[in-house]
């Protein structure tokens, strides 16, 4: 049975430093048809916007006007990002929040590892039907919030979609910023609440505090890739993801 985040004990999140601006050498979006995919390395496809264009977080309006869209990014889209997305979907099943995920270096022939299937199943989530999807420019554009597993992946997104700066964070970075945000949680039960607008305001508040939070050189901001590692690493990564998402949800909603 899935236990809602507000009924689970709170756990601290060690989220590490706020990443600096990405460099083009750390990755880019490849906007070449038909894949329109984002890779860890590649030529940028989208010209840099003017300073005025960085007034995000904004998302291209698609689907339900009040739906808040979150997009998770990792490498292969079979471990970290898919678990994060489907965990968030399960945790917010009764409110209009929708999460999707993609990878920067996917292999369509690779499925979700058994250890991730087990970690998801233990939390009431079935990932057996998942197939890896490549990150696309469209997916980044349509999201209200983009959360990556690592700083390198954050940089890969921003190298070619720089106007997504104010809505793109590592998962642990955003959890850390959420803790410091001066924010009244959204009443997710309110029938008249425009959730996408309210949550985007939270994202903007978090983004505005990047430079105020400070940095801890001894803390780790990435979530390591557990692929092909020992079962204990998978379990640790799964717990790290769940704790960070629970922490964010407690700050954003009531």
Question: What are its keywords?
Answer:
254 residues, alpha/beta, Rossmann fold, four-stranded parallel β-sheet, three-stranded antiparallel β-sheet, 8 helices, 11% strand, globular, disordered N terminus
| Separate helix tally | 8
What is the ordering of alpha helices and beta strands? EEEHEHEHEHEHHHH
Low-confidence stretches are 1-8, 14-35, 42-56
Quote the average pLDDT. Answer: 80
Judged by helices, strands and strand pairing, the structural class is alpha/beta
Approximate strand percentage = 5-15%
Rough outline: globular
User: Portion of residues in helices?
Assistant: 25-40%
Number of strands: 7
Describe the structure.
The chain has eight helices and seven strands. Helix 4 links the parallel strand 6 (145-148) and strand 7. The model is unreliable at 1-8, 14-35 and 42-56 (pLDDT under 50). The chain starts with 27 loop residues before the first strand and ends with a helix. The chain has a single domain, classed as 3-Layer(aba) Sandwich (Rossmann fold), CATH 3.40.50. The protein is 34% helix and 11% strand. A four-stranded parallel sheet has the order 4-3-6-7, with helices on both faces. With 254 residues, it is α/β, with parallel strands linked by helices. It is globular and about 40 Å long.
């Amino acid at each position: 049975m899935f236990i809602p985040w507000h009924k689970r004990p709170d756990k601290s999140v060690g989220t590490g430093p706020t990443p600096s601006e990405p460099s083009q050498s750390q990755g880019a979006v490849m906007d070449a048809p038909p894949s329109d995919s984002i890779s860890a390395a590649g030529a940028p496809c989208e010209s840099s916007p003017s300073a005025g264009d960085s007034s995000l977080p904004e998302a291209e309006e698609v689907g339900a006007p009040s739906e808040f869209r979150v997009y998770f990014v990792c490498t292969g889209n079979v471990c970290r990002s898919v678990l994060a997305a489907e965990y968030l979907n399960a945790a917010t099943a009764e409110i209009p929040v929708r999460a999707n995920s993609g990878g920067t270096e996917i292999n369509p022939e690779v499925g979700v590892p058994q250890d991730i299937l087990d970690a998801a199943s233990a939390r009431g989530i079935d990932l057996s039907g998942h197939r890896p999807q490549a990150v696309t420019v469209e997916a980044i554009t349509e999201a209200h919030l983009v959360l990556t597993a690592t700083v390198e992946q954050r940089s890969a997104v921003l190298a070619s979609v720089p106007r997504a700066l104010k809505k793109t964070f590592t998962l642990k970075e955003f959890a850390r910023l959420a803790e410091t945000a001066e924010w009244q949680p959204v009443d997710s039960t309110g029938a008249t609440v425009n959730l996408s607008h309210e949550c985007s305001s939270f994202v903007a508040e978090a983004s505005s505090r990047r430079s105020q939070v400070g940095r801890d050189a001894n803390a780790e901001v990435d979530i390591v890739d557990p692929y092909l590692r020992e079962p204990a690493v998978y379990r640790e990564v799964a717990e790290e993801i769940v704790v960070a998402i629970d922490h964010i949800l407690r700050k954003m909603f009531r």
